[in-house]
Design a protein that fits this description.
Blueprint lengths: L4 E2 L7 E9 L5 E7 L18 E10 L5 E6 L9 E7 L14 E5 L5 E11 L19 H5 L5 E5 L1 H12 L1 H29 L1
Parallel strand pairs: 6-7
Antiparallel strand pairs: 1-2, 2-8, 3-6, 3-9, 4-5, 4-8
């Protein structure tokens, strides 16, 4: 699968995760990650709150990083259970279910075979462990997924047919299985906690 690494022009205030992808390997790229919290200023929220990041976005550029083909800012990315899904493809191969109504952000691939996808993080809260700013040195790129945890974009090449058949889960089956297992564990723990409370009341 394509792996995101730290972009060279990172500062303490803004940080970029970058991945180079090619049509040589697949029709489209799908990635899924936990969404950092942010102040939605378009809805009147103050920036002086308890948020993970001040701002984040995902954009598509040409292979040289000179031209942008599309961006989705944080407030426009539909969330499902606190997670976001992105699909990058040609318009002709856009899956029918790659829509905001289905909880998916779609971005155009652009006219080139090879492109860059970038995720921008701005002004992380000191307590937030999932910011790409935590990838302090180039050597940390190999550990980026471990450093950022669920906030790291897990990605894969996929086909239009596979995504239409099963959504991001069909393209990222290992992650889907892991999250399902985690959800099952949380439900089991919550059930045990409720059961213990009922016993104490007796």
């Amino acid at each position: 699968p394509p792996r995101s690494t730290l972009f060279p022009y990172t500062t303490l205030f803004r940080s970029y995760l970058q991945v180079l992808v090619s049509h040589h390997w697949g029709q489209l790229v799908v990635f899924h990650l936990k969404a950092p919290t942010f102040p939605n200023t378009t809805h009147g929220q103050s920036v002086y709150g308890s948020f993970d990041l001040r701002y984040w976005s995902v954009c598509v550029y040409d292979s040289g990083g000179n031209y942008g083909w599309g961006c989705v800012p944080d407030q426009d990315a539909p969330q499902r259970g606190g997670w976001v899904t992105y699909v990058v493809s040609d318009a002709a191969h856009r899956p029918a279910n790659a829509t905001s109504a289905m909880g998916v952000s779609w971005l155009p691939w652009g006219p080139q075979n090879e492109i860059q996808i970038m995720e921008r993080n701005m002004l992380p809260a000191p307590r937030f462990p999932g910011a790409s700013q935590r990838i302090a040195i180039p050597a940390d790129n190999a550990k980026a997924a471990a450093i950022m945890g669920s906030y790291y974009p897990t990605s894969a090449y996929c086909s239009e047919q596979a995504f239409e058949r099963g959504g991001w889960q069909a393209c990222l089956p290992a992650l889907a299985k892991e999250l399902a297992a985690t959800k099952g564990t949380r439900k089991h723990k919550a059930h045990k906690k409720r059961k213990a409370k009922r016993k104490r009341r007796r």
